[in-house]
Specification:
- By secondary structure, the chain is of the alpha/beta class.
- It has one domain: P-loop containing nucleotide triphosphate hydrolases (Rossmann fold, 3-Layer(aba) Sandwich), CATH 3.40.50.
- The protein is built from nine helices and eight strands.
- The strands form two sheets. It has a five-stranded parallel beta sheet. The chain has a three-stranded antiparallel beta sheet with strand order 3-4-5, with no helix packed on it.
- Strand 4 and strand 5 form a beta hairpin.
- Helix 7 packs across helix 8.
- The radius of gyration is 17 Å and the shape is globular.
- Bound molecules: 2'-deoxycytidine-5'-monophosphate (DC).
- The site of 2'-deoxycytidine-5'-monophosphate (DC) has 14 residues, from helix 2, helix 4 and helix 8.
């Protein structure tokens, strides 16, 4: 007898659509695990920087991805024993992450690491290709979109709250660039899975969006 794989809810979407916060809150509400897959690409970018690289070498970036010594615990992220949760959110690392994420060898290096998060009682995974590539059999796939201006405002507030300064116009420009890079890349581009439910959160708060995802899950009739 084969045991059914634990359930997964995938939440994909563009940068700063709120998917990370929504995924974490949905995971908490269900008592499930959470996977912030973007963090793995950010950690790879940070590891590349620390090794003196600039992201121009695919093989070096893939080696860094394979060798990541990372611990996710209590909302914190440790790389080689050092807490880097804030550091990987820096704009320079964000941009480098989007570049190394375009390399197929990096994506391949992180594939099994991501699937290993699928343990009982269930997983909420957020990213760009959770529903299309990593967990194609997920029983609920959400594509969380939001207007780019709204996302720039949210990112601006997020950075300010963390004590980083940033210009709104720069953030908007950056988001547009990163969106284009994530959507137009050849390997695992940002796209809604054919069977994903598209949720536009431009005019929705976090609470409402979390409720929407939980309602979608209940409606599947699979909730235990
Ligand atoms: O979700 P995020 O902003 O933390 O992601 C950082 C970068 O990693 C983003 O530019 C796209 C990339 N990424 C990806 O290619 N695939 C994923 N599943 C998650 C993130």
């Amino acid at each position: 007898m084969t045991l059914a794989a634990p359930p997964v809810i995938t939440i994909d979407g563009p940068t700063a659509s709120g998917k990370g916060t929504v995924a974490m809150r949905v995971a908490q509400a269900l008592g499930w695990h959470a996977l912030d897959s973007g963090a793995l690409y950010r950690l790879t970018a940070l590891a590349v920087t620390r090794a003196g690289g600039d992201g121009g070498d695919e093989a070096q970036a893939a080696a860094a991805a394979r060798a990541l010594d990372v611990v996710f615990r209590d909302g914190g992220i440790w790389l080689d024993g050092v807490e880097v949760g804030n550091e990987i959110r820096r704009e320079a690392i964000s941009n480098l992450a989007s570049r190394v994420a375009a390399y197929p060898a990096v994506r391949a290096a992180l594939l099994e690491r991501q699937r290993a998060f699928r343990t009982a009682p269930g997983l909420v995974a957020d990213g760009r290709d959770m529903g299309t590539v990593i967990f194609p059999d997920a029983p609920l796939k959400v594509f969380l979109d939001a207007d780019v201006n709204e996302r720039a405002l949210r990112r601006h507030k997020q950075l300010k709250d963390k004590g980083f300064s940033a210009k709104l116009s720069d953030l908007l420009e950056d988001l547009r660039l990163r969106d284009a890079r994530d959507r137009d890349r050849v390997h695992a581009p940002l796209v809604a899975a054919a069977d994903a439910v598209v949720v536009d959160s431009s005019r929705m708060g976090i609470d409402e969006t979390v409720r929407k995802v939980l309602d979608l899950w209940s409606a599947r009739g699979l909730a235990g």
